[in-house]
UniProtKB/TrEMBL annotation:
Family per record: Belongs to the peptidase M1 family.
One Pfam family named in its UniProt record: Peptidase_M1_N
Peptidase M1 leukotriene A4 hydrolase/aminopeptidase C-terminal domain location: 493-632
Protein name, entry field: Aminopeptidase N
GO molecular function: aminopeptidase activity
InterPro entries: Aminopeptidase_N-like_N, Aminopeptidase_N-like_N_sf, ARM-type_fold, LTA4H_cat, M1_LTA-4_hydro/amino_C_sf, M1_LTA4H, Peptidase_M1, Peptidase_M1_C
Length: 665
């Protein structure tokens, strides 16, 4: 059983002393709105934005399902900061570069020398284009690899409709470089346009000005007039139809999914209106959503104007649509004000988690928002038990994040990040804090910033403006120290009281709660019920729950995510067929990684995991494949012959043996 959140280990003894440079700027009431200049270079990019910055990108690509490639040209418009620079350095991964040219200032193109460096397993290959004349534009002719890490190409048989092929991108964190040669760092923002040619029977969409009334003809043009960072570049193609939810919002999906999706997402316009009421006008014109195949490796991705979504969010009762609130919230936190490198990921995800919670509260009530917070904070506690204290800080130090896609610290980034904002809200009061946040989004709109810039802004516009409410050292503890500060506000979810009593009563008496109670439970209550069960359970106990609630084989993947590891850890092999089906049906990393993780730690489980993975692999996304391969490769054979209900198992034994399996998705 999980300890109460009040017993959160504060890790005070582990806290490393923060080595934060003193804020250079004096506490002016409002810092001058100078262009945000990130202090540090992005360690996950080869680009040199202090020398040259891409200000616009124009793509002209052929999208070919037979060869699984995008091929054509990328024209980069350049803003040379260093007038003595002689090279343009770009990020690439698995790209074939055919040609590099520079504009000659008279409307023509002249060849430029270029070289592609050796491949770094995380960063890809640096492309250096020689630009002794510092051309205003550089044109690169290239093609992608069929195994581009940021693209998934799917046969018709892998789609809902089974008639047409499907492809889509996932660029965050550093996969845009696998389909466009560019400065793949969020510190650089640019406008883009694209012309994409494809077979005429598929619809092509991008994170740009999609036309709800577009006709399929195989020739599509796009424009994104607002400056965005590279991780928000996105493309998808397939048998996609559109339906409006409101004037400015709607859903793209395969025809058979469309009606269900529109019903599930019916509250989207209300969410936009709520967010606008809090943080100012929605600045991206349309807000549409694209429902992807179940192999989508994440829950959602905030591609501007076109959120990408997992179909696993469609469960029929709107109980998982906080995911939409989350992706919509990124229209302010992330897309408007962007982290300048992955080590400040909390500026995107922590802020967004907070805004999401506010939207959920406004639309579905405080109870649901609180239940969500409690579930997340329990997960954060588990994460802290596993990860290096260096990863438990919001403003991580340079060199700490190896692979920005998989550092096992997502609860820190999301939940601790949001918790800091809940803390500030509690201390300053909603009125002042809401005004502060709204001012922050306006002040840094369309800029990329780091944690230091946020800290300076907060000092001037919150801490110093309303003195003696939060001290600088309290604030800095949140940003620069591991664990959760002792002054953190705690949230109780009223409705979990009922869930807890029901669980305890059942564990004591084998008497399940009356139907009238459980019939009213939504996903969050079921999640809490399962998460709070003891680690060691008997087959009879699991079977009784299963008979009553049908957890095994549940269509709700959030419930499956929690139930199957519990079943596996307790040798409840009756669930194996359903587990295999689940792992083959869903590719969302967050949902399936815990089940693979549990499987590889049991005797028969490793064989089952390996076998299911081989079958599921063709339908998985490259990012999912990499993650599951790592889980299987890191598998340690279990010490005991049978893992069945051993009361001696320490509560966090599962955590202790687990390699970093954290993920945003
Ligand atoms: N931007 C993230 C997805 C992401 C993060 C992709 C880091 C790659 C690297 C997205 O907004 C997100 O947070 N998705 C969550 C949704 C959830 C927290 C509501 C997910 O996919 O689970
Ligand atoms: Zn997010």
């Amino acid at each position: 059983m999980r300890a109460s959140i009040l017993a959160l280990p504060l890790l005070a003894t582990l806290m490393i002393t923060a080595c934060k440079p003193e804020d250079a700027a004096p506490a002016a009431v409002k810092p001058a709105p100078a262009a945000a200049a990130p202090q540090q270079v992005d360690e996950h990019s080869y680009a040199e934005p202090q020398k040259v910055v891409v200000s616009d990108l124009a793509l002209d690509l052929a999208l070919d399902f037979d060869s699984k490639t995008l091929a054509g040209t990328a024209i980069l418009t350049l803003d040379w900061k260093d007038k003595t620079a002689t090279e343009l350095r770009l990020d690439t991964r698995d790209l074939t570069i055919e040609k590099a040219e520079g504009d000659d200032g008279k409307g023509g193109w002249v060849p430029l020398k270029f070289r592609l460096a050796g491949i770094d397993p995380i960063l890809g290959a640096k492309l250096t284009v020689e630009t002794p004349k510092r051309n205003a534009k550089v044109r690169v002719t290239y093609r992608t690899s069929p195994k581009a890490s940021g693209l998934q190409w799917m046969e018709p048989s892998m789609t809902e409709g089974k008639q047409l092929p499907f492809m889509y991108s996932q660029s965050q964190q550093i996969h845009a470089r696998s389909w466009v040669p560019l400065q793949d760092t969020p510190s650089v923002r640019y406008t883009y346009s694209a012309r994409i040619k494809s077979r005429p029977d598929v619809m092509v969409l991008m994170s740009a000005d999609n036309d709800p009334n577009a006709v399929r003809d195989g020739d599509y043009t796009f424009r994104m007039p607002q400056k965005i960072p590279s991780y928000l570049m996105a493309i998808a193609a397939g048998d996609l139809k559109f339906q409006f939810i409101s004037d400015r919002s709607g859903v793209w999906a395969e025809p058979t999914m469309l009606d269900r999706a529109v019903q599930e997402f019916a509250d989207t316009e209300k969410m936009i209106v709520t967010a606008e009421g809090l943080y100012g006008r929605y600045r991206w014109e349309r807000y549409d959503m694209l429902v992807l195949p179940p192999s989508f490796p994440y829950g959602g991705m905030e591609n501007p104007r076109l959120t990408f979504l997992t179909p696993t969010v469609i469960v029929g009762d709107k109980s998982l649509v906080w995911l939409i609130a989350h992706e919509l919230a990124h229209s302010w936190s992330g897309n408007l004000v962007t982290f300048s490198s992955a080590k400040d990921a909390w500026l995107n995800e922590g802020f967004t988690n907070y805004v999401e919670n506010r939207i959920v509260e406004a639309l579905y009530g405080r109870d649901q928002a609180d239940m969500q917070s409690v579930i997340e904070r329990n997960a954060l506690k588990k994460e802290f038990a596993q990860i290096d204290p260096k990863l438990q800080v919001l403003a991580t130090a340079p060199g700490v994040l190896a692979d920005p896609d998989n550092d096992g610290s997502s609860a820190t980034v999301y939940t601790k990040g949001a918790w800091l904002l809940h803390f500030l809200e509690e201390r300053f009061g909603r009125e002042k804090f809401d005004a502060f946040l709204r001012g922050y989004f306006d002040h840094f709109a369309f800029q990329s910033i780091d944690s230091e810039q946020f800290a300076q802004y907060a000092k001037a516009n919150l801490l110093d403006k309303y003195p003696n409410i939060v001290s600088q050292s309290e604030f800095e503890e949140w940003l620069y120290k591991p664990g959760i500060p002792a002054n953190a506000p705690h949230v109780q979810a009223r409705r979990f009281g009922v869930v807890d009593s029901a669980r305890l009563a059942w564990l004591g008496s084998r008497q399940l709660p009356p139907r009238v109670i459980t019939d009213a439970w939504i996903s969050q209550e079921w999640i809490h019920f399962i998460e709070s069960l003891p680690d060691a359970m008997t087959i009879e106990q699991l079977a009784q729950l299963d008979a009553a609630y049908g957890f095994t084989g549940t269509p709700n993947a959030e419930i499956a995510e929690r139930w199957y590891p519990l079943a596996i850890n307790n040798g409840y092999t009756q669930a194996n067929d359903a587990i295999a089906d689940f792992l083959k049906r869903v590719g969302r990393i967050k949902l399936i990684a815990p089940t693979y993780q549990a499987l590889v730690q049991t005797q028969g489980g490793l064989a089952l995991a390996t076998q299911v993975f081989e079958q599921a692999k063709p339908a998985y996304h490259p990012i999912t494949i990499a993650r599951i391969e790592a889980i299987i490769a890191n598998a340690r054979p279990p010490a005991e012959p049978s893992p069945v209900a051993q009361p001696a198992t320490p509560p966090d034994a599962d955590a202790a043996a687990a390699p970093a399996a954290g993920s945003a998705g």
